[in-house]
Amino acid sequence: MRDEIVACAQCPRLRAHCEAIARVKRRAFHGQSYWGRPVPGFGDTGARVVLCGLAPAAHGANRTGRMFTGDDSGNWLYAALHRAGFANQATATEKGDGLELRGAFVTAAARCAPPDNKPTPSELAACAPFLARELALLDDVRVVVALGQIAWNATLRHARSIDPAAVPTPRPKFGHGAESTVRVTAGGGSVALLGSYHPSRQNTNTGRLTRAMLDAVLLRARDLTE
Q: How many distinct structural domains can be found in the chain?
């Protein structure tokens, strides 16, 4: 499945964008080789908690080839995962840096870095089967943490695709600290769906998301698996 994700070419706009970024590069990373391809999920295959983000960052995962690695969002996320006991270290700079996740798996609604961080509905739909297959393979999942509204909506769409009754009525609304239950595998039991603001610079630099706020969501996720 990892190989299929990396080789995916369903969205020409996204592939062209990722490849262009990999060619031009950011000055700070001029001497580095960029990944420039779709990015698979990363983490513990026995995970009880899945964290779903928006998409790889242009000079983060699109550069390093690992979700939430090599950018400010990843610095926030993996430090929080470390504090909550889900990661063996607080930093994520590149593949091969020794980072291991324990009981957690990190993925995204879109696998290619989109222009302006805005994948189109059709591009999200093209990536949806990858999220579905990951969730089907992660047999022990008890909690999905949606990092941002796009990830929240992608999780609900996936649940509804399994069975309309897999999503509560009225449809759960996204918000930081929002909590609901959904089913993410056919015939499976309910799992908790938790909402968190995305750890983007737009949210962390403005104080919309604080470390304490992110910690609270991850500690709630941990509690729900115990």
A: 1
In the chain, % of residues over pLDDT 90: 97
Burial 156-166 (b: 16+ CB within 10 A, else e): bbbbeebeeeb
Domain housing 34: 2-224
Which helix (DSSP H) or strand (DSSP E) does residue 123 occupy?
helix 121-137
Q: Is residue 131 within 8 Å of residue 111, measured between CB atoms?
A: no
Residues in contact with 196: Cβ distance below 8 Å, sequence separation at least 6, in sequence order: 145, 146, 147, 148, 176, 177, 209, 213, 214, 217
Do residues 47 and 17 lie in contact, with contact meaning Cβ atoms separated by under 8 Å? Answer: no
pLDDT (tens digit per residue) in 20-72? 999 999 999 999 999 999 999 999 999 999 999 999 999 999 999 999 999 99
Q: 3-class DSSP state for residue 195?
A: strand
CATH assignment of the domain containing 34: 3.40.470.10
**pTM of full prediction above 0.90:** yes
Q: How far apart are CA 195 and CA 77, in angstroms?
A: 14
Handedness of CA 68, 70, 72, 77 (dihedral sign): positive
